[in-house]
Amino acid sequence: MTSIDTFGARAELAVGERTYTYYRLDALKGLDALPYSLKVLAENLLRTEDGANITREHIEALANWDPAAEPDTEIQFTPARVIMQDFTGVPCIVDLATMREAVAELGGDPSLINPLAPAEMVIDHSVQIDVAGSADAFGANIAREYERNGERYQFLRWGQGAFDNFKVVPPSTGIVHQVNIEHLARTVFTRTEADGSVTAYPDTCVGTDSHTTMVNGLGVLGWGVGGIEAEAAMLGQPVSMLIPRVVGFKLTGAIPAGATATDVVLTITQMLRAHGVVGKFVEFYGEGVGAVPLANRATIGNMSPEFGSTAAIFP
């Protein structure tokens, strides 16, 4: 989809021998002064403005964002990709397969039914440990896992080959959030348009697991949604949301000797619960951020559902 670009934000950036299209926040006064997470939403609206679902009024509402006001403006957010774990993701693929059957019965081309947004599924929720404490434990557990779940894995293998924009990370690779951070997150996403140009934009995601917020530790804005919302996002439908309030959390100094990462994470969780951040974005800032390694940032992001925020991001 090409933006109608009311504010003339579309621009080009040359990197080596390649040229990328991107959308400038300084096209509208106020956008470049927003908190980082809202800048991500602003770029999203500039890039997907269609005059119907996403309008100039939505973009202007972000430019005029009042940090003290109660959220009252609904916007349509289009995530760059969808991340799924196997138990909640399988029904989405079943629905796509059913759509293909329906299209075929109506005389259409079933191959036209595909996710419009890249969808990635990590098989991790069916892991069981049958063998432990021996050199062959890993291989034996994998063999039993394929034996137990053979039919489901065959179906997902078919889906990966049949659908465009759909990838499956096989079992015994790691938990979905670890794989998301270490392998699937792009931080900067690129998409080749119909005219051959390449658009660059921030990586964002929604996932069928509440702890999708772990990826916020990497600076990628994302949060958990239900299966129906994830399926809609796969089919190119934006996620409806109110422009959120943003709570800044300033970090100074360093973790003192004797304190563990768990102490830090639980202290932050306690403070944010006391402050009240339900439905809000939390952003961490300050010179202390540099003393928090990625693993700890991801763990803090992971606790977002525990203190109630939509996302808890380290820009």
- Name the strands of the widest sheet in spatial order: 6-5-4-9-10
Q: What is the helix/strand order?
A: EEHHEEHEHHEHEEEEHEEHEHHE
**What about the largest sheet?**
5 strands, parallel
Helix content: 25-40%
Proportion of residues in β-strands: 15-25%
How many H/I helical runs? 10
Taken from the alpha-carbon principal axes, the silhouette is: globular
**How many strands appear in the DSSP assignment?**
14
Task: Provide the structure class.
Answer: alpha/beta
**Whole-number average pLDDT?**
94
Distance between the termini: 27 Å
What would you report as the Rg, rounded to the nearest angstrom?
21 Å
Low-confidence stretches: none
